[in-house]
Write a structure and sequence with these properties.
- By secondary structure, the protein is α/β, with parallel strands linked by helices.
- The protein is built from five helices and seven strands; from the N terminus they run αβββαβαβαββα.
Length: about 180
């Protein structure tokens, strides 16, 4: 009888060890897949230095990314004709109001021939909108889909990138608010 009990305890112990090892292996594989997926997204990779650029805003003033060195930046690429871009604009405006002194929002429009100023007025957005008239910056950042958003830290390093619509909660999370 004792031999049977010992055999059962031994088998249960072996099964527990096997289950724990399988769970640890699965968690490690999931982490590796997540890392691969993030870096396989279109656009510049997370961890790279964000390339500097210079574009005009809606009032014709020149704005450089390097003007905001030492600040956290949310760099968003969008177009007026893009339904997901339109959907995230109200949350971007709320985030802008919430984070005015903590995070700089730069919204790079890739279709400056459209009435971008009229669109901004209609959507009631007040954060800086930059016009990529020659697709120079969208090419530099390897933009293949919009909206695409990069979160850049105070040292100029891309810490997160997101493709598709963002919610205010994601903006807070990625920016560290």
């Amino acid at each position: 009888m004792i031999k049977k009990v010992l055999a059962i305890v031994f088998l249960c112990g072996l099964m527990t060890v096997a289950i724990v090892q399988a769970m640890e292996k699965n968690a490690k594989e999931e982490k590796e897949v997540e890392s691969i997926q993030v870096n396989n997204l279109p656009g510049l990779e997370v961890g790279l230095k964000a390339p500097d650029f210079e574009l005009k805003n809606l009032t014709g003033e020149t704005v450089k990314l390097s003007d905001f060195k030492g600040k956290r930046i949310m760099l968003n690429f969008w177009a007026t004709w893009c339904p997901p871009c339109k959907k995230e604009m109200p949350d971007m405006q709320k985030f802008y109001q919430l984070s005015k002194n903590d995070v700089v929002i730069l919204a790079v429009n890739i279709d400056p021939k459209a009435d971008v100023a009229g669109f901004a007025k209609k959507m009631d957005v007040h954060f800086p909108i930059l016009l990529d008239e020659k697709d120079k910056v969208s090419s530099m950042y390897k933009i293949l889909t919009i909206p695409t958003t990069f979160f850049i830290d105070e040292g100029g390093i891309i810490r997160h990138k997101h493709l598709s619509v963002m919610t205010i909660d994601l903006m807070k999370e990625y920016s560290g608010l």
